[in-house]
Amino acid sequence: MKQCHRLAALLCVLALLLGLLPPLRAQAAETYTLPVFETSDVHGFLVETTSTASETTELYRMAYIADKVDDARGGDAARTVLLDGGDIYQGNAISNLQNGEPMVAAYDVMGYDAVALGNHEFDWGITTTTDSDGTMTRYTLNGVEHDSKIPILASNIYYAGTSDRVDFTQDYVILNKTAVSPSGQTRTVRVAVIGYVDTYSSSIMASEIAPYTILAELNRAEQTAKALKADGRADAAILLAHMDAAALAGQLSDETAFDLVCGGHSHTGQTGVSGGVTYMQPWSKAAAYAYAELCFDGSGAVSVRGAAIESLQEITERLTDTAANASELAPDVLSLSRFYLENVQGELNTRLGYVTVGISTAQIGNNPFSSTGGNWMTDMANRATGSKVSFTNKGGIRTELLLDGSRRYITKGDVYTIAPFCNLLYVYDLTYSDLLTVLSWGISSGRGLGLRMSGIDCYYSGSTVTALVEDGVCIYQNGKFFDGYADKHLRVSVNEYIATASSTPFASWNQKCVDSTQVDNESFIRVLEQEGKENDGLLFVDPNAHYINGTYAAPTYTIATSYEGKGYITPTQHVQKGARVVLTIRPDDGWRLSRLVVDGDELTPAEQYVIRSVHADSTIHAVFTELAAESADPCAAFTDVDRNAWYHESVDFALAHALFNGCGDGLFEPDGTMTRAMLVTVLWRMEGQPGAQESLHFSDVSARSYYAGAVRWAAERGIVDGVGNGRFEPDSAVTREQIAVLLLRYARYRGISVDPTAIPDSFADAGRVSAYAREGVGWAIAADLLRGSRESDGALRLEPKASATRAQVAALLMRMNHLLQKS
User: Fold this and answer.
1) How far apart are CA 80 and CA 68, in angstroms?
2) Taking the model in full, what pTM does it have?
3) Per-residue CA distances from 729 to 471, 561, 701, 722, 805 (Å)
4) Which of 42, 43, 685, 784 is the most exposed place for a label (fewest CB within 10 A)?
5) Strands, E, within 80-211: which ranges?
6) 557: nearest Cα among 630, 469, 642, 616
7) For residue range 295-310, what is the model confidence (pLDDT) as tens digits?
């Protein structure tokens, strides 16, 4: 036995000497590493453009990230994994204006291994952003068509009502990669990347997601990873998801086969370990990339180390296209970025104006449903659609445009960035009761949508609307509408996302939709172009909250009264906002009320003046004139009326019939310009100031103006129809040919027979009469209303384009009165 033992020992020594057995102390096996890079929620930020008062700067974000990936590859793409967590295209104007093509081309050139399917990939229609084989789309560059073939991953999306997976995504992809040891040894490894998406249907326009169903099937993804590893098809497994990485890692089972979770959707940078699984997720808009290393040891075990977020926000000086940065930016992606930027740069950099209030998504004060960004977008929607109130959702405000010092210039590119989705604006004809329904929904069951709005102030407590204040007037408080507002109508606009979401009140109001033809960003640009022209470039941003978390308290205003002469006017009083005030204005015997001036505006004298709803301080001044003093000569009250002038009799007529008032300070201003508002008012007075059912539909006619009743009457009877675009231009000077047209319409209203009459050739400037006015001018000449004037050269002229004076109109009205009496 001992001899056997000695023989065995001898054989072992011999084997060691011959190298047939391993050494007694084996060296530790090397670890092989494979770098993993991830971007997510890039939203078209191939290049970021920023503007200041003096310059525009381009930050080549993706070219910088590409350079870091290239460094890790060392010329061999198999030595890295490059992934994206979805939401690739929508958000930046460079991508938006070129239908996402810049992003497809960049991802192809950078050699992405796979991308997740983001919810915003549905914005333009899913067939626009995916190919039917489950890869990114084809693109054309310099006349050559390319097919990227980058897999789009999502294992839990189905055709609605079926168990069939959609064909525009793949469940997973297996990557053959090369891991490298510290000594430079290489090893082929197979990495399974399995796609998953959050149940993000509510973040997609209803019409775009309707054909599909997203199921919460994380267990199915885990089973796939386990099976791929068990049968030897994969050495490691990555879960690539358009879902918050930390939340997703926390949902994995204890026995999960996943080694790494790469997430997105929530726009937050994060790394960590949950249940033994490492997760990572970069910041959005290419402001960072995530990085980790898959480690493979000799036993086949896989671990993850070095998970980190590499931020670009602190190194923006290294992202510009300068000679000093040549080694920081990948040349091929830089060249591609320049190409696509130059395609649209002229349009993107076009300045629309500047703002002095930052456009932010942060809440205003303690009002979580209000932000300056929300105010700006909804105010533009109001102006674009002619709506009173507009809504957007917080997710529809895609960026902030903060001040650069005391101001910020706004470009077309900024508008496409803050409103990138090309949403249609839906306009509804609603009652104020309907509006209350929307506002109440927004702070209760619809709270998660984050409604932002402007056009009315909505006070609320908890989930209850307590007051609505429109233009300073309280129209609803504590469950009660005032002055019949519940049934009054207004125009309300919302973006397409809100209009088509099944959970909003608008889903059941299709019959109330009156328009859905305007695209939001294009309409906003038109509004801002006009505003910039009108205001020397200054663009308004409302800094005030309109969804107001608090109690409404009506302020107090002063109604100050005064008078001249002998009479009575209700004394000065202090009243609450929204109060109804009735003022009595009564002359003494032997006196008459000759003038009534309210807040500087001349109104038709009346012995009662009503303020329907007080919303500001107001001053009312009455002038009482002694009847005996003016009976002999109505013009005697005015110091600027020449009793020997040609117009004296006409002005006497106008004053005696209370068609005209003076202009204050004892002046009549016979040579003063006659405005459109004045002319309509004197015709109205000739009729005895009748009432009208017509509502004011001219945007530039205030209900408080002295001429409001006259304009309503004239519009209802077809005497005036405005100047277009819903405007009346009350303060514009009225021309002689315009007067002729209005008098013709007035004559027809009064039943006078009007025969077509040509303009006599005896007038030297007959050819200057506008086509629309020729009938009116011809009739006015034939009726002896319009006579023309003899010039120094002997020619008789009409001067149809000349502004009419108050004295000339007085003469025309006196002749018109004679014509009415004869008829």
Assistant:
1) 11
2) 0.58
3) 22, 30, 8, 8, 17
4) 784
5) 81-84, 114-116, 138-141, 144-147, 152-153, 157-159, 172-180, 186-197
6) 616
7) 999 888 999 999 999 9
